[in-house]
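[step 3/7] inverse_fold.run input=structure_tokens len=310
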């Protein structure tokens, strides 16, 4: 096989893997939506599998490949009771993280994510003079859009049902006077590191550029201290930044976060244990919760390790 043929074969295999990743998430999301719509009926596994367009057998294989857990464990992770336990377990995690100045071993914040805020002047200029490169890439949670300046990632969004153009337009509106140019060659490496996780932080850190009001940036920096697999309430974030009565304002700042996943606003839930809404879709928030939870916690049933047979 010559070098040209080998390169084409490698590229084709990479694209096939990318397609499978996006396709797998689409099926996961359909299953979550089905469960949301039929939660009181407690549907059987065969029904949930059918909603994803799969047989029972293939549905179980998909979940083990995507999340490393069984469908049964997956459903347990979506319950309010499970979320409440996560809140209880994480009760003091934010205080501890602030005391230590990092997010703990679950995320290796100091090694994996470094962030800086744009100056008030830069924020007021609405991106004027700023060069932003963007690209669309596969991720464990569907196709994503990543935007970056020469200083680091300034935006991470997920393509919704309205397609790429709508997602790009939404993100560009946050920096209306910036020069935005498609350049997936630049953003591909950043996207790969973004979803590699803290376990592979040695492959390269991810620099973030936060653009918001002083209050928003303060909230986003607090989010970065929540370890993977932990959940905290809006009230806890408000207390951690010294604004105990500002839970509602914290919620607004969380919703305005322009760098989803990397600035983990999906780890903030209501005190009641309800996961709540998410700018990029409630099903995606639930998927992130389950995906991270399965990696941070041991299997509950029979003490078996993650990835064991259902």
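[step 3/7] decode complete -> sequence:
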């Amino acid at each position: 096989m010559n070098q040209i043929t080998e390169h084409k074969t490698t590229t084709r295999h990479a694209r096939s893997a990318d397609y499978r990743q996006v396709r797998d998430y689409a099926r996961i999301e359909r299953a979550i939506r089905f469960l949301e719509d039929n939660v009181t009926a407690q549907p059987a596994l065969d029904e949930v599998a059918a909603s994803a367009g799969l047989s029972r057998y293939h549905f179980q294989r998909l979940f083990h490949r995507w999340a490393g857990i069984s469908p049964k464990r997956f459903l347990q992770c979506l319950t309010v009771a499970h979320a409440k336990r996560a809140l209880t377990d994480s009760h003091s995690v934010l205080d501890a993280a602030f005391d230590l100045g990092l997010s703990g071993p679950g995320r290796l914040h100091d090694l994996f994510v470094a962030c800086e805020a744009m100056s008030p002047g830069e924020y007021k200029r609405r991106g004027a003079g700023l060069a932003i490169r963007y690209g669309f890439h596969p991720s464990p949670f569907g196709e994503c859009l990543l935007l970056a300046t020469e200083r680091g990632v300034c935006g991470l969004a997920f393509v919704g049902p309205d397609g790429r153009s709508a997602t790009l337009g939404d993100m560009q509106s946050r920096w209306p006077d910036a020069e935005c140019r498609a350049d997936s060659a630049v953003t591909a490496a950043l996207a790969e590191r973004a979803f590699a996780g803290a376990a592979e932080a040695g492959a390269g850190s991810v620099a973030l550029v936060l653009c918001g009001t002083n209050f928003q940036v303060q909230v986003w920096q607090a989010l970065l201290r929540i370890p993977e697999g932990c959940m905290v309430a809006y009230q806890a974030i408000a207390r951690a930044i010294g604004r105990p009565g500002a839970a509602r304002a914290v919620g607004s700042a969380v919703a305005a976060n322009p760098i989803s996943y990397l600035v983990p606003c999906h780890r903030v839930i209501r005190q009641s244990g309800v996961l709540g809404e998410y700018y990029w879709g409630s099903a995606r928030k639930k998927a992130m919760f389950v995906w991270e939870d399965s990696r941070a916690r041991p299997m509950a049933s029979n003490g078996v390790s993650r990835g064991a047979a259902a």
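[step 4/7] annotate
The domain at 87-277 is CATH 1.10.10.10 (Arc Repressor Mutant, subunit A).
DSSP finds 14 helices and eight strands in the chain.
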